[in-house]
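From the thread on structure requests for the teaching lab: each student submitted one protein with a one-line request. Submission from student K.M.:

"Model Polyhydroxyalkanoic acid synthase from Sorangium cellulosum, tokens only."
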Amino acid sequence: MKHTIEHDLSDSEAKLATERAIAQYRERYAEYEPFLVWRDAKRAELGFSVKGVKLKGSMELRPGAVDVDLDVPLLMRPFKGVAIAAIDKEVRHFIAEAHRERAQGGGKAT
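Reply posted by the TA:
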């Protein structure tokens, strides 16, 4: 099941917000070894480790939304909501940051 984070940013601003979010997540939760690898301009693989189990998923940029999907083994399903919530929180933080930068004249409008 995909989790959608809606936004009103351009594709480049949304991509930058997701990159910043994962970088922040990586700093805060280095023990989970989070990663984000772009496969093309709109699709990335993401993942992390929980209790020695590697979890992988995808992130996709769409107009007005970022879709996040994690493939989680049955035994690790309780962690899926926690992981999605953490990613959601970070992405939303950097979407808001992009809005602040735009308002200060540091970003371009869509």
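TA comment: The beta strands are 3-6, 35-38, 43-50, 53-62, 65-71. Residues 77-103 form the longest helix (27 residues).
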